[in-house]
Batch of 3 targets.
Target 1
Amino acid sequence: MSFERVSQKDIAARAGVHITTVSLALRDSPRLPEETRIRIRQMAEEMGYAPDPMLSALTAYRKSAKVSRYQGTLAWLNTILRPEPDNLGYKDGAMARCAELGYVLEEFRVADMPLPRISRVLRARNITGIFLPPQPGRLTHINFDWENFSAISFGYSLARPRLHVVTNAQYRSVHIAIRAMRARGYRRIGFATVQATDVRTDRNFSSGYLAEQRRYNEKYSVPMFIYDDVADARRKHFVKDFGLWYTAHKPDAVLSLDGEISGALADLGIQPETCGHASLMASPSGNLAGVYQNGPMIGRTAVDFLVGMIHRNERGIPSVPLYILVDSTWRDAPSLPDKRR
């Protein structure tokens, strides 16, 4: 049984408009009056219109096969008042993907101008897409006229508004790390972080660690070391308290979510042969073993999602935020010697 597919040309003929108008209406483009968009979409539904999947695939292929011309500018909204390096590589990945798609990524800093002025500048320049990198506070609230923009956030540190999120699969990262460490002969694996970081990551890493502990013999269980850096922001007692925890529980390896654990182990004279060390924020090179969060891939994924939002004219705070998770990759390094050898 065959049927004749309804085309955009058919809809244009019935509506008495150009086929380009139909195309814009079906994409809910703000270039058309809302009344026109609604009328044409209703007419398309009544006529039984459905996009041709083969034609859509061909269009996507043609777009990807040619060098993209300038498509527009996307905003990197930096709310951090002091300069900080992009250690996770989100911005590098985003810039690379923007270049491939024909977009320019431009940074706007709250340190240079207040949020209301940034909003006016973005609207004047027709910049509708915004990336929000991880926030400096534990749970940040940002007041902004989101209804005019498509936006996506990195990580869990933005409490309000609840935007779409792209981040590392943090819970799974701990699973990857613990199982890799056990495969290399470690059993009493401790977990170390600080309170502020645990909150900013929605406790995904510490939850993953507790879940992994339930999988194995109870005699290997080690209580977590979570230092209260809220009460002691300068960490005056950090090394001392970490040393007391280490002496009390004698882990044969430490999985950390804090950049100062390596220094604490060195200050206490603990060598990798005595206690291995792996990080949940390892770099793709260097002497520190652990999981590499694939930050550039997270940045690239964010660009693809945000561009899709712009094409679908999805603006404002979503009613149901989506969470896009990118897996980690394990890497060996001298800080975690293989005990099987």
Target 2
Amino acid sequence: MSLADLAPLPLGGVDPLPKERIGDLLVEARERTLALVDGLCDEQIDHQYSPIMSPLAWDLGHIAAFGDLWLSRAVPGLRSLRPDLFEVYDASETPRSSRGELPFLPCADALAYGRAVHERALVGLEDLDVSPSGDRLNAHGFVWHLLIQHEHQHNETMLQAMQLAGGELPAPALLSGLTCPDVVSSAAGPETVTIEAGPALIGAGPQGFAYDNERPRHILELEAYELDREPVSNGAYLEFVASGGYRRREWWSEDGWAWREQEAAERPLFWTDDGRVRRFDRIEPLDPALPVAHVCWHEAEAFARAHGKRLPTEAEWENAATWDPAAGRRRAWPWGDEPPTR
């Protein structure tokens, strides 16, 4: 593999999506957000359950304010609906720990604000040029992908807040029926794959949407390394816990051990001491075949050390997840070039 093979290859998504598809994605993002809070009462949505997460109502208002701000910049002649709220919903100026004390919009008002912004977005999109020849914000649909990805991002933080609510909030209905593939492992341990040494293409190309910390695309020289083919399973992590993983100082870094002592951690955050796991408001048996979740960096690092391994670097992980050695090129997604369907 030469540098010439690497340099011109884009990450995927270089062809701009038609406006109809962008509109569909805006609708899908909004529907996901509304589904997360469907069935919750106003009090549950307005309450801050954890100092490290926002009240759900703050996220709802923030999504709306973010859209309100960028629509006024991207759509000619469109003025913001509620510029008076931009300071309240400025994520860089409002630490999560204090967001519960802010004068954010209560649930019903936040939902109404979001609905109004969403409707304006769909109407504004109709008359804009999102082709490569469009203006700086609209070319390739840049600002529209920003709005879509931002809403998805807050869907994730809202789910985190709901899981951290100590069992007081039910699992969102949209999660029902979703399954996760079992981790395939053997008595000999996980199968590994060798990644050969050489140049690796890291980061996003110049076209399509990406956050600025993914650019510019660049090439790094990586040494050869091995990576497990499958994620760590609950069963494998349970063996680590049972073998004294949280008491064996030699498996933990200095910072990791200090964290473990400070948190008095004995197992992953939502595991119970009788071998079960809490998912939102339900306590369920721990499925040993599922990938382990809700472990922090220190816990993952200790597990790797206990097995004579280490965690991959960001560059190693990105290279393994995106490079297709058979085709000799970078994939748009870890599974190939087709975008996700759900």
Target 3
Amino acid sequence: MKFFDKLSLRATGALAAASLASLLASTSAYAEDKVTAVHAFPGFLVYTQTFLAMVDDINARGKGIVQIEVKGGPEAIGMFQQPAAVRDGVVDMVHTPGSFYGKSVPEIDAMVASTVNPMEARANGGAALMDAAHQKRFNVRHLGWIDGGVQFHIYNSQKPKFGADGVLDLSGVKLRDNPIYHAFFMAMNATTAGMPATEVYAALEKGVVDAAAWTSIGLMDLKWDKFMKYRVDPQFYNTDIGVIFNKDSWNSLSSESQDLIQNVVIEWEEKSYNDRQADVVEEAAALKAGGMEFVDHSPEGGAKYLKMADDAAWGRMKGRLDALGDTTTYDALRKHYTP
């Protein structure tokens, strides 16, 4: 009897050891957090390349902790549908311009009209305010402002005209529109057609539009310079490209994963800012070498032009916040983003 008791005890012990090993293996398999992501722009654009390089950095440092799987760009989820997708948890993370969801988070216009760079906004508390607004209004965390410090120009296939007040005259110009500068274009009484960046080349080719605003870099990547031969100065606004993360998905991550992702994004705020400043200089030289003419406002006209842009962005934000019954955020954001 003692023999069988010992045999049973050994079997029980072996079974317990096997169960423990299985449990440990299972726990180990689930220890690494998994994150899904998409990006707004096509993969060949510098902004997307920044995001993909940042993801590679996170994945390299996050082995055994967290891994991000990029599902694609606008071919996976339409660029204007991506913000809602991350809000609703269809994907965990999105790299996108904030203006694509500005109606839901009016505060994003503070980044558009900002006079500080991403590092300054983080140091003075502006980034924390922006994150808080995203959590409150859109069920996402705003982790960082990537490729900041890049501004916009209007590019035209026709030689620009200026009004009696010295400001660019857009009468008769068919201008491609986008949420970030829509209010500004409306203030200038422009005739606009809204469309994704991926459709603009064909629209230029067919004459649907003959002008568009774009950043000071990336025009040649899109091949729009084939049609547009004039750049209007001065530049206005800032890119408002951010990394936003579904709040519920974020809360489900380990603290180690959260710290790693957030810290890398903050590092890339500065790295991407510095890299893009060099790109701005390089691309301006390349556009000139390719025959593009840079047409500037007079000093007085340029000042009026920039004030119209500034007033349009801040005015839009204030109007949206007022409609929400928010009477405090506007002043707080102006203090942090235009100190």
